[in-house]
Amino acid sequence: MNLNNIPQIKNTDADNFFLLAGPCAIEGEEMAMRIAESIIKVTDKLKIPYVFKGSFKKANRSRIDSFTGIGDEKALKILQKVSKEFGVPTVTDIHEVSDAQMAAEYVDILQIPAFLVRQTDLVVAAANTGKTVNLKKGQFMSPESMKHAVQKVLDCNNENVMLTDRGTMFGYQDMIVDYRGIPTMKQFGTTVLDITHSLQQPNQSSGVTGGRPDLIETIAKAGIAVGVDGIFLETHFDPAHAMSDGANMLHLDHFENLMTKLVAIRQTINNL
């Protein structure tokens, strides 16, 4: 896909990787605006094409008492406000066919969660909105099998599709990134590596997903080195008290340092 098809995206002529980043879930307006402002200062400085990420609701939860959101329309309006105030595109994930058209009225990219990427009706509903569709590779799927998910979008006359690797299930409580899958999926379209979800430790006995944020830099550097087009990560100014996925998020204080290192690696790769 052509990044320039995403409304308001900047710095596409910088020959850099692009970035989808933000909090796991929209917890409120103040936190969303604070995170967006911090990220945009860095991405503008480093000339990184940027899309603000935030889930308007969380449907894939381990326990019934887990945080699911502040209200669908309320969260979507916050995403829309971020886009208008900062002039950046936005992405959110959808879980049901009825979510597609609703979310498409507020955001620029619709993301299909990894657990749901084989749900044909959901993928088709997202594609039929005409929005860019980000397909996350199922933890149970091979990179090769993602060509079928991509084809579902293309068959809806929508060429704005990207694929995101977020690790593969390794045993019951761990994820692993097989970097051989990046060049494989690049044959099918624009490829993204989800850094933070690749470091999840799901299915903990507590019912709260764990993670390895200490390895974020390692996974990210390797992804840029093998040629991903973009990276996805979740970040928060207080991960310990985030309402969702705090255990594997990048602390916002470390964001600029990481991006600076990744840009340097990308520039090196470009010059080889």
UniProtKB/TrEMBL annotation:
Alphabetized UniProt keyword annotations: Cytoplasm, Transferase
Location(s) in or outside the cell: Cytoplasm
Listed GO CC annotations: cytoplasm
Gene source species: Myroides pelagicus
InterPro entries the record matches: Aldolase_TIM, DAHP1/KDSA, KDO8P_synthase
Gene3D superfamilies: Aldolase class I
GO molecular function, one term: 3-deoxy-8-phosphooctulonate synthase activity
Pathway assigned to this chain's UniProt record: Carbohydrate biosynthesis; 3-deoxy-D-manno-octulosonate biosynthesis; 3-deoxy-D-manno-octulosonate from D-ribulose 5-phosphate: step 2/3; Bacterial outer membrane biogenesis; lipopolysaccharide biosynthesis
Protein name: 3-deoxy-8-phosphooctulonate synthase
Native organism taxonomy: Bacteria, Pseudomonadati, Bacteroidota, Flavobacteriia, Flavobacteriales
Group of enzyme by EC: transferase
Domain DAHP synthetase I/KDSA: 8-264
Domain of life: Bacteria
